[in-house]
Amino acid sequence: MSAPRLDVDHVLDTAQIIVCCGAGGVGKTTTAAALAVRGAERGRRTVVLTIDPARRLAQSMGLSELDNVPRAVKGVDGNLDAMMLDMKRTFDEIVLTHAEPAKAQQILANPFYQALSSSFAGTQEYMAMEKLGQLKASGAYDLIVVDTPPTRSALDFLDAPDRLTTFLDGRLVKVLLAPAKASGKAYLKVVTVGFNVFTGALTKIIGASVLQDVSQFVAALETMFGGFRERAQATYDLLKDPGTAFVVVAAPERDALREASYFVERLATEQMPLAGLVVNRVHRSAAAGLTAERSLAAAEDLDPDSLTAGVLRLHAERLLLSQREARLQERFTSAHPGVPVVEVAAQPGDVHDLEGLRAVGTDLSSGTAAATPA
Ligand SMILES: Nc1ncnc2c1ncn2[C@@H]1O[C@H](COP(=O)(O)OP(=O)(O)OP(=O)(O)O)[C@@H](O)[C@H]1O
Ligand SMILES: [Mg+2]
Fold first, then answer.
1. pLDDT score at 102
2. What is the model's pLDDT at position 79?
């Protein structure tokens, strides 16, 4: 059974948001960057939101510093901006945007805020959502390509709004928010009592100075989180929009494909628009006509140490590898027959410059749907 081919160029020309997701280390960041370069070179004003790109890739895209602002990528024949996600800075921006300047400074300086903004579970996902919403609202781009963080569970990204709600409904935040509705002495007393409940844990994280300026901090936190929750929901809704295309990335390996399966099912459950599957780092054999059996047989007739015998054995190994990969991919396709697939060949080295990204982009747009096992 062969899968329908994922028409990447069609997606690049029509989608407003592309989200690359998948298991850790399969090539999400590379695929996102390659899609963005190709999208820009096809004439769309594009921005790519990357998360923890490898250093050399970041450099080649002009991302030498974490500044949380999209920067033009030099050397691209079109309009491409790129940015790396810095979660603490995005958090700070929310405070600066939603609190009065003086209050904002107070919040930023508050040790409790500092601990909170960089430590609570899933911050990276919320920040990705937040940033995506901002980029969309700016109206500056035709196409936004989003990379997702290497989470242990590939599903964390989708859980973000739920987990945010769980966090915001949690005891700690309740204690922080509740007193803001009281006033005067009673207010301070409630706050103090509330904090005392958590003294042990809080002191460990942030020290005793946490109680300074706590009243203003708590009040501002309420304003901030109130809006934050709504915006996370709005961005979540944006992801369901038909203008969004989820691209699941996998390596041609059992575990990665199993996770891809799970992800495809989850996207369906959430009614998120799936564009298809990218099978990245596929091994292809140049001389597919020469079977593994024949080349091993031929190698046996030669001096085992000869170069030709070595090449023949290598050829056989590559061929067997590519057959194994094709079988794994077949298995995915028989479980999800409707899901379009495209393959990207394993490059000889890491993908760390525009040239490498263009090569991946070319494969993405012209690669075969699914290798037929020989
Ligand atoms: N088609 C390819 N050919 C060769 N190397 C590749 C290919 N795709 C990705 N790589 C390399 O594999 C490594 C991992 O890729 P990448 O960082 O894109 O994965 P990721 O899914 O974003 O990982 P993480 O889950 O850690 O964020 C990088 O060194 C990258 O250059
Ligand atoms: Mg990555």
1. 78
2. 96
User: For residue range 54-86, what is the model confidence (pLDDT) as tens digits?
Assistant: 778 888 887 766 567 888 999 999 999 998 876
Q: Which amino acid is at 83?
A: M
Q: How many domains does the chain have?
A: 1
Residue (of 24, 13, 2, 22) closest to 274 by Cα position = 22
Range(s) of the domain holding residue 241: 8-286+319-366
Whether residue 335 is contained in a domain is answered as yes
Which-ligand-closest: CA of 347? 1
Residue 252: phi and psi, rounded to 5, are -75, 55
For 73, phi then psi, to 5°, come to -90, 125
Q: Judge whether 295 lies within some domain.
A: no
Question: What would the pLDDT profile of 249-275 be if each residue is shown by its tens digit?
Answer: 999 999 999 999 988 998 998 888 999
Cα of 56 to ligand 1 centre, how many Å?
12
Residue nearest to atom 16 of ligand 1 (CA): 27
Q: Is there an atom of ligand 1 within 6 Å of 323 CB?
A: no
The CATH number covering residue 205 comes to 3.40.50.300
Report yes or no on 307 lying in a domain: no
